[in-house]
Specification:
Blueprint (H helix, E strand, L loop, with lengths): L1 E5 L6 H9 L4 E6 L2 H8 L7 E5 H4 L2 H9 L4 E6 L5 H6 L4 E4 L4 H11 L4 E3 L8 E6 L2 E6 L3 E7 L2 E6 L3 E4 L3 H5 L7 E5 L2 E4 L3 E4 L3 E6 L2 E6 L5 H7 L6
Parallel strand pairs: 1-2, 1-3, 3-4, 4-5
Antiparallel strand pairs: 6-7, 7-8, 9-10, 9-13, 10-11, 12-13, 14-15, 15-16
Amino acid sequence: MNCIIIDQKSDSPLLVDLVSKCPLLTLVGTFNDSSSACNLLSIQKNIELAFIDLDMAGSESINTIRSITDPLHIIAVSSGESYAMQAFDQNCIDYLKKPVSYARFFKAVNKTLKYPVAAESTDTEERELFIKKNSTFVRIWMKDITYIEALENYIIINTVDDKFTLHFTMKGFESQLPPDLFVRIHRSFIVNKRLIKTINEEFLQIKTASGLKTLPVGRVFKNNVCEDLPVLNK
């Protein structure tokens, strides 16, 4: 997994040393400000993880990075807990408190493997996700996802021939989906727009491998659904 480090003390051995010990990581670069990191991220699209020392770079660096590339896994590091709430509000994968042991560092890195990572492509038909199922990564084509359902602290990704349960937020997963292919219809459901067969005031039906599936349309999402499907406005 390609990663970068953002730390004003770019020669500090803490994160560099931890990354060098981890066989899962390849360090692409270290930066002493988020702007320099953004320059690289805007060009190189295969970087999946950023370590940000918030004591040095500040919490605003998370917003700066997010404005350039999202999704990107971020692990925040700090000597205290003052930045913890801000870090998790920005969907950081983990928050490491200094001093950081290698065991704790590796646990945070391993956590990123449980989260889906969208592969970049300008063609929706070619967009894909790699999702960890048991000890194996499974490739899922975006176009094969029929609908996503939120269930407490988990989501269920339904595809044409399988389903995957992930410990992930609906909002976080929605941010990784191409909006030209998916639409949020309810606080608990996102559907593949190309599979919608019928829709009325309260429900819609989508095509699945086992037949038509009826799903509720939330009141607060109704207008967005209608605007997202131009045929409904004719």
